[in-house]
Structure formats: structure tokens, C-alpha cells
């Protein structure tokens, strides 16, 4: 990047800064899912190989490889979430500087929950849909669920390695 005047932060408008932060945050979310999908597919393929090779000498190396992949997956998820959080914070700051009344990323939890509650309230759902609406209001984090899935694979692989080692005795 050169030091030309058009590349200096002071030459960018607040709107341009906000757009850059929004685009970067959205890119980080997209990359998070692409990486997670890659690791999920890779873990699933290694698991298929592990179970297809039952009783074979390749099970332990496959288990260790699977465990390594799952640990890397968790670390990549944490790194991706770090950058997503960083850009969401930048959006919050840029938004308040641009127009404090916008309140998209700078809303507090009370306001966010009220918005979602009011949105769901107008849907008039019944039965299972109403139960799902209540789950929505608990705000489960999709990135956290993916982190939990990577932890589940770590536990699975560690358990399979231990079982494999115990069966070799």
C-alpha cells in the first residue's frame, strides 16, 4: 500500500470507513464458515477411513490425524471469531461516530432482545414453531455451536485413540 493521499485514513469519509469495516466483518464470517466446512468434511472423511479400517494397523494413525485436525479446527474457529469480533467492534465505533442513532451494531443487549422479541411476537406462531421461537430468544451463537462441534470431535478422537490403545494390549 502506498502513502498516497487517497489511502490515508483521514481522506476516507466516515461512511467509507463504515463500509470497509462492514465488508471486512462479512468476509470474516464467510471465511469462518468456509474453514469450518472444510474441517468438518475433512474430519468426516478421516472418521470414515477410521471406521472402515476397523481392526487394521491404520486406525491409530488415523485417530491421531483426526485428533490433530479437530484441534486445529477449534483453533481456526477461535482465530476466525477473534477477527469477526474485532471488526464488529470497529463497526460499533464507526457507527457511533457516523450517526449514534443508527444503532445497528452499537445497540445494547436490551434493545437487541426487544427487537427480536417484537419481531417474533408479530409472527403469531403456534405449536413447535412457538417452541422454536423461544429457542431463538435464547440467542444461541452459531459460531459457538461450531466451536462445540469441533470440541466434540476432539473428544471423539481422543476416546477412539484411547480405545484403540487399550485394545492393542
Summarize this structure briefly.
This protein is mostly helical and 169 residues long. It is built from five helices and no strands.
What does this protein structure show overall?
With 169 residues, the protein is mainly α. It has one domain. 76% of the residues lie in helices and 0% in strands. It has five helices and no strands. Helix 1 packs antiparallel against helix 2, helix 1 runs parallel beside helix 5 and helix 2 runs antiparallel to helix 5. The longest helix has 40 residues. The protein starts with 13 loop residues before the first helix and ends with a helix. The relative contact order is 0.12. The mean pLDDT is 89.
Given as residue ranges, the uncertain stretches (5+ residues, pLDDT < 50) are: none
DSSP summary, beta strand count? 0
Structural class based on helices, strands and sheet pairing: mainly alpha
Order of helices and strands: HHHHH
Tally of domains = 1
Shape, please? flat
Helix content: over 70%
User: How many helical elements?
Assistant: 5
What is the mean pLDDT?
A: 89
Amino acid at each position: 500500500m502506498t502513502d498516497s493521499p487517497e489511502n490515508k485514513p483521514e481522506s476516507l469519509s466516515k461512511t467509507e470507513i463504515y463500509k470497509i469495516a462492514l465488508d471486512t466483518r462479512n468476509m470474516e464470517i464467510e471465511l469462518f464458515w468456509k474453514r469450518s466446512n472444510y474441517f468438518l468434511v475433512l474430519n468426516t472423511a478421516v472418521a470414515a477411513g477410521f471406521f472402515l479400517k476397523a481392526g487394521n494397523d491404520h486406525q491409530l494413525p488415523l485417530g491421531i490425524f483426526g485428533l490433530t485436525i479437530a484441534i486445529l479446527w477449534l483453533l481456526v474457529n477461535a482465530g476466525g471469531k477473534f477477527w469477526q469480533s474485532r471488526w464488529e467492534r470497529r463497526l460499533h465505533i464507526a457507527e457511533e461516530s457516523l450517526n449514534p442513532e443508527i444503532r445497528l451494531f452499537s445497540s445494547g443487549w436490551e434493545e437487541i432482545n426487544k427487537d427480536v422479541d417484537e419481531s417474533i411476537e408479530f409472527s403469531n406462531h403456534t405449536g413447535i414453531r412457538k417452541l422454536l421461537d423461544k429457542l431463538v430468544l435464547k440467542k444461541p451463537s452459531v459460531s459457538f455451536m461450531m466451536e462445540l462441534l469441533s470440541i466434540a470431535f476432539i473428544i471423539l478422537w481422543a476416546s477412539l485413540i484411547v480405545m484403540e490403545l487399550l485394545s492393542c494390549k
